[in-house]
Amino acid sequence: MSTPSDWASKDFYQILGVKKDAKPEEIKKAYRKLARDNHPDSNPGNKQAEERFKEVSEAYGVVGNEEKRKQYDEQRTLFGQFKGGFQGGAPGGVDFDFNDLLGGLFGQGGRSAGRRRPQPRRGDDLETSATISFEQSINGVTLPIRLSSDEPCRTCHGTGAKPGTVPKTCANCHGSGMQTGTSGGVFAMTEPCTACRGRGLIVESPCPTCHASGRAPSTRSISVKIPAGVKDGQRIRLRGKGSPGENGGPVGDLYVLVHVGDHAVFGRKGNSLTLTVPITFDEAALGTQIQVPTLSGSTVTLKIPAGTPTGRTFRVRGKAGTTDSADMLVTTEVVVPSTLTEAERAAIEAMRDARGDDDPRAALFAKVR
User: Fold this and answer.
1) Do 167 and 118 touch, CB atoms closer than 8 A?
2) Of 53, 250, 254, 353, which is most buried by a Cβ count within 10 Å?
3) pLDDT (tens digit, 9 = 90+) per residue, 202-229?
4) CB atoms within 10 A of CB 127
């Protein structure tokens, strides 16, 4: 596992293929793709993919963590300044070990650090989706969800070693995970140990499940409570329901993207239900009382005043028929008959004759002129 003293010579942004100012969601997206493409289970026997998987996991463990990313950016800036200042050799011809400086800055021991203690690492956040019915989105529902994620390997308990064996301390770096080299005999640079790849341990008998990575796919089922009033496309955060942490680190969070199915009759506008009801011309002109359905299947009475136009919306307070007593917005739609009986035609023609020369569009033309 990386520590601040390991980071100086690594460009984690380049490893993940993102810019230095990339947003957290861009970094997470890039990591997930690379981890999926290079996971040992997807590439059995491919050592290059295995190493690439470890590399991107290490990079995301730093720049995917807000606090570590800030520390890493500060260290890289400082590293650039010191590297430029000592290119011609350290003052007085003395070898300069940048890791010694980092040890002072970040509380780590540089060349005298000895074996590093594994640091706690927060588990990854997970994301899944759930599709619920319109009624469930209004009243709320508890759903069983099956999750798949990378967790500490259950076969080796995260050590990466075959059961019955244990990793050995790297003889090259004595467990520190770092080694020191010189440039031209003047400038000393500490870098990840080439023998153990910065881990400090050598796995001589790899775990057959995780192939020495210490991580393995795992599936589990949990119950997720979807609250009443959830909207289509809403993301729900469930704290502590993501991947387990490492070395005592906290569990990550779970994000559930909710998809809500359509209803044949009702719609949503904010926290209210919407409903369009057809009315006849005479009901709109003369006024009436009609029965309208609710989501629960019961009905409510709605008074239609005389002269109600098509498209007028009435608010029926607390009568949506839901558990939270939401309002219902009822919009009228005047129905024009496609065919008429002789009696209906005679009645409408009589109404036209009674209206006389009254033109409802006269005011419209007057405004244009």
Assistant:
1) no
2) 53
3) 888 899 988 887 777 778 888 999 998 8
4) 15
Q: Residue 70: what pLDDT?
A: 86
Q: Is the pTM of this model over 0.70?
A: no
* Contacts with 229 (C-beta within 8 Å, 6 or more apart), sequence order: 137, 138, 140, 271, 324
Domain 267-368 belongs to what topology?
HSP40/DNAj peptide-binding domain (2.60.260)
Q: Where are the beta strands (DSSP E) in the chain?
A: 96-97, 126-132, 141-152, 168-169, 178-183, 187-192, 201-202, 215-226, 235-238, 254-260, 267-269, 272-279, 288-293, 299-304, 313-316, 328-334
Edge-to-edge strand list for the sheet holding 96-97: 96-97, 187-192, 178-183
Tokens found for residue 272: 């209210």
pLDDT in tens, 106-153: 444 444 444 445 567 788 888 899 999 999 998 889 999 888 777 778
Whole-angstrom Cα distance, residue 194 to residue 206? Answer: 18
DSSP state of 159: S
Give whole-number Cα distances, 291 to 183, 297, 320, 322, in Å: 88, 12, 13, 18
Closest C-alpha to 326, from 134, 172, 130: 134
Handedness of CA 106, 110, 113, 119 (dihedral sign): positive
- At 325 the three-state DSSP class reads coil
CA end-to-end distance (rounded Å), the chain: 80
> Quick check: 336 pLDDT over 50?
yes
Task: Indicate whether 56 pLDDT > 90.
Answer: no
Which are the contacts of 100, defined by CB distance < 8 A and separation ≥ 6?
Answer: 110, 111
How far apart are the C-alpha atoms of 134 and 240, rounded to whole Å? 28
User: pLDDT for 248-285, tens place per residue?
Assistant: 788 889 999 999 999 999 998 888 899 999 999 999 99
**331 neighbors 337 (Cβ within 8 angstroms):** no
∠ CA 298-302-307, nearest 5°, is 155
The full set of domain ranges for the chain reads 267-368
